[in-house]
Automatic annotation (TrEMBL):
Transmembrane segments: none annotated. Residues 272-282 have a biased composition (Basic residues). Residues 1-20, 260-282 are annotated as: Disordered. This is Tetratricopeptide repeat protein. It comes from the Bacteria. InterPro entries: TPR-like_helical_dom_sf (IPR011990).
């Protein structure tokens, strides 16, 4: 009888700490003893309830105000422990997540104005963390992990060009992944927000209009896509010129839609018919 070596035991993960009964008291203690951790908690609270990848914070800490902005990446685990041990946050392989009661309490304590400030800083972090590639399948899990946080950063009403670019690239990544419906929903929200905030002729608005049209095409809505592309191409010609790369790309997308709808529009021949009738008159 051959004895097989015993399989090594996997390290047991400790169950997450229970949410404290006195959340407000725990938040006050955190602010007094670990102000940088309190800032981190606020950033997590204004993002989506889904886990936030830890490197979203560690790779861009200098973008944040102090004291959190002055924390070295090697010290970051200490901040996380200050949140996890009292039950204010949970950490997994997917990232940091706040229990819903803690998230609600932090948001209520912040109020609308402070939440907006935190959201703007959170948007800086998320925009800096998106992948460079939108087409490679290897980048899709990362896009999927960051997508809810890009949306929660309120990119549709953001004055940050980097966040707007990241949100538009999210739409492109969804189209590459064959997810036309969420791409259409997100692009429509972004386009509406940017049309109001930046104006319909802003390059970011027009870029988003093109991606919205592509999402409409992918969803089979060819007529709305054509109408949007007609308007977008006209605006791009006026704003950037007919030879600008962005104009040419949008025009090529419109050409593809027209072909799918039955071919390029034929020139108007009504004047030829009128001339033919005149020649037949005695």
């Amino acid at each position: 009888m051959t004895l097989r070596p015993a399989a090594p035991e996997l390290p047991r993960q400790r169950p997450p700490a229970e949410v404290p009964d006195d959340i407000e008291g725990a938040l006050a203690t955190l602010s007094d003893q670990h102000p940088a951790a309190a800032q981190l908690l606020c950033l997590c609270a204004v993002l989506h309830a889904a886990p936030v990848p830890v490197d979203v914070f560690t790779r861009s800490l200098p973008l944040l105000p102090r004291p959190l902005g002055g924390v070295a990446p090697l010290q970051f685990n200490g901040l996380v422990a200050a949140l996890v041990e009292p039950g204010l946050a949970q950490r997994s392989t997917q990232g940091l997540r706040l229990p819903e009661p803690v998230r609600d309490a932090v948001r209520e304590e912040l109020g609308d104005e402070a939440s907006g400030v935190c959201r703007s800083y959170a948007g800086l972090l998320v925009a800096a963390a998106v992948p460079d590639d939108v087409a490679a399948p290897s980048s899709w899990p990362r896009w999927a992990a960051l997508a809810p946080h890009l949306i929660a950063s309120d990119a549709a009403h953001s004055a940050d060009p980097a966040l707007r670019r990241a949100a538009c690239r999210l739409v492109v990544s969804l189209l590459h992944r064959g997810k036309a419906r969420p791409a259409r929903t997100i692009a429509a929200e972004l386009h509406g927000g940017w049309s109001e905030l930046l104006g319909p002729d802003h390059p970011d608005t027009l870029r988003c209009a093109h991606e919205l049209a592509r999402a409409l095409v992918a969803a089979g809505a060819l007529l709305p896509a054509r109408k949007l592309l007609d308007d977008t191409v006209d605006r791009l010609v006026t704003k950037l010129g007919a030879t600008h790369p962005q104009t040419r790309v949008a025009a090529e997308t419109r050409r593809g839609v027209l072909l799918r709808m039955g071919g390029m529009p034929r020139p108007d021949k009504s004047h030829l018919k009128a001339a033919h009738r005149r020649r037949k008159q005695p």
